[in-house]
Amino acid sequence: MAGMVLPPNASPFGYILPGSNANPFASLLPSSFPPGTPQHIIEAFRYSDKDGNGFIDDKELKAVLSTCDHGFSLRTIHLLMYSFTSTNTRVIGPREFVQLFTSLQQWRDVFERNDRDRNGKIDSYELQQTLQTLGYPVPPTVLNLLVLKFDKSGRNYALSYDNFIECCIVVKGLSDKFKEKETVGTGFATFTYETFLLSVLPFVVA
């Protein structure tokens, strides 16, 4: 992850190891805003960084995204933070915030284009088209499971924007983990048991 260094008592996923009372963020180094970052994004981050330490935490990120019409649950916030920092320390710096914010704008555009009936949700067919647009052609059996999992109403078989983002992060994250191990072009990958658990668990416990 650009611009951040894990503390010595952290695991590869950013969890603080048992038996340590150290401040988990003491050794993290903040990143910087990329050149050309729009001023409104810089101002949004700095407004949320109340103590000026170069980081915002999960609750601060939730608050600032809510002001930009991205009202997410804390679980979705945690998944976003993991996706853009590769750690579960649940703090995010300027560079990662810009990447996250920009991606959310793109994902909202994709969501709205595929919400053809303009009801603020996408059904299973629309979700399939959306995931294909994003480069993830999931098979029908997986698609059905995704709709059942992320339709939090449990009856509409459709995803709200928050649930859509959560779904996309999980699909993207697990697909990327698979591609890291895939023998190119075969659709097969080999994982050790530990590697498999470390690949999946961050998306389960967020």
Automatic annotation (TrEMBL):
SUPFAM superfamilies attached to this UniProt entry: EF-hand
Entries under Pfam families matching the protein: EF-hand_6 (PF13405)
Domain (EF-hand): residue spans on this chain: 36-71, 102-137
Matches recorded under CDD domains: EFh_PEF_Group_I
Alphabetized UniProt keyword annotations: Calcium
Record has Coiled coil as a keyword: no
One example GO MF annotation: calcium ion binding
Top-rank lineage group of the source organism: Eukaryota
Keyword Calcium assigned: yes
InterPro entries for this protein: CML48/49/50, EF-hand-dom_pair, EF_Hand_1_Ca_BS, EF_hand_dom
Protein name per the record: EF-hand domain-containing protein
Organism, scientific name: Stephania cephalantha
Upper classification of the organism: Eukaryota, Viridiplantae, Streptophyta, Embryophyta, Tracheophyta
